[in-house]
Structures are given as structure tokens and as C-alpha cells.
Amino acid sequence: MLAEVLPPRVVVAERFTDPSDVYLFPEEEAVIARAVDKRRREFSTGRYCARQALAGLGVDAVPLLPGERGAPGWPPGVVGSLTHCEGYRAAAVARDHELVSLGIDAEPHGPLPEGVLGSVALPAEEETLAGLGRGRPDVHWDRLLFSAKESVYKTWFPLTGEWLGFEEAELSFVPDEAGEPSESVGGTFRARLLKTGHDPRGRALTGFEGRWVVTRGLVLTAIAHAPES
User: Fold this and answer.
1) Given strand 88-95, what is the order of strands in its sheet?
2) Which one is the CATH code of 1-229: 2.40.50.140, 3.40.50.300, 3.20.20.80, 3.90.470.20?
């Protein structure tokens, strides 16, 4: 499913259940030594997916330890991203000469809890979501906005090492043109960054472009930021 919203040069691995025989390196075990079962399953299956994806790049398994703000540390020459929600875990990786950053997110396709949208959306975004909802009421646009902003942050942080708040990116969405009846609906999104930032090469970051899909009860969003972007 995640491969639908990422270019072919990205290797994806995803799971809908948690395997019982996940191997963790001792350093990884130490990270979750006191974790509750839910956190342990999310962490372990995330590493399982990551190693499968890395194998697809021809990269050997190594410990993937959380760094600053929990972002996973990837092997040299690799960019990647992890995501998890109830009933779904995924990893996406690519070579760093093909992409400079990756951000993926998965959420259950349902409305955000009451009161959350106001802390996520800018006033202009709320107006946009209302209009989109009139055209496609089958999509929970508030949840899609939340997911896309998570993907924006996951793309931004490895490049800058800085926090990016929900209010510091303004998003717009374009659904794909309707075709044959399908259980999935998708499209593109654009993030205009409202905070000044630069990548490691000193290039200004002004925005990101990504793709989204709603399918099988999930919202999936992804950004593959290429060197020329």
C-alpha cells in the first residue's frame, strides 16, 4: 500500500500483524527494556520492517537506535522513515544520493478526536478542508491533514535538526481525478513551510510535495524529497 505513494527507488516493507520472532540487537533491547507491551510491539515490528527494507537495498542489518526526538539512526548512505498505528507498521528507505530525506505516516481513517483539529490546522487550512469535505465526504480530511503534517515533520527534521510545529507548515491537497470505482482514493499534497530552514548543504527549504492514499481503513502519506527538489 505504501508503495502507491512513493517512487520506485524507495524500498518499502509493511506489516499488518506483529511477528512473534523478531530479533533485536542488544542495544535495541536496552531501549525498550522497561516498555509496555504496546510500545515493545511497535518498536520491534518497526525494526523488522526496517531490516526487510534495508535488505532490499542490499544493506546489512545493524542496530537502529532512536536519536534526537526519537528519530531512528539509519546506516551511512541511507535515508529512511518509520511509521506505525493500530494494525499497521511500515518502513521506507532509499539511497541518500537518490533522496535527501523521507517522511511517511500512517493513521486510522477516522475523524480526529474532538478539539484536536484546532491545534493542527491553520484557519486557511480549516476552510480548505471544509471545501474538500463537500466534494469528497468519504474522506476524513482532518485526519489526512494530521498525517501529512507528520510526514512533513519527518522529512524536515533529518535535514535541519530543528522542531517544526503544526502551525509552521501550510498544506493544500489535490485529489486524483476520479476513475473506475475503487476502494482507494488518493492524490497529492503540497506543504509551504512557514519557518526558515536550510538543508545540510545550505539550500533553503521552502516546501515539500507528497502523495496520499486512503485505503483499507488507513490514511497513508509520504514525502520523497529529492536532491533537485
Assistant:
1) 11-15, 88-95, 78-85
2) 3.90.470.20
Burial class (CB in 10 A: 0-12, 13-18, 19+), 135: exposed
pLDDT digits (tens, 9 = 90+) for 161-196: 999 999 999 999 999 986 555 678 999 999 999 999
Beta strands in 66-206 (DSSP E): 78-85, 88-95, 101-108, 169-175, 185-193
Torsional sign, CA 85, 217, 211, 170 = negative
Express each pLDDT in 79-135 by its tens digit: 999 999 999 999 999 999 999 999 999 999 999 999 999 999 999 999 999 999 999
Q: What's the CA gap between 23 and 213, in Å, rounded?
A: 31
Could you give the CA distance from residue 1 to residue 17 in angstroms, rounded to a whole number? 15
Q: Which of 199, 197, 219 is nearest to 210 (CA)?
A: 219
C-alpha 120/C-alpha 113 separation (Å) is 12
The distance from CA 53 to its chain's CA centroid, rounded to whole angstroms, is 15
Q: b/e map of 97-119 (b: 16 or more CB within 10 Å)?
A: eebbbbbbbbbebeebeeeebee
Domain extents in the chain: 1-229
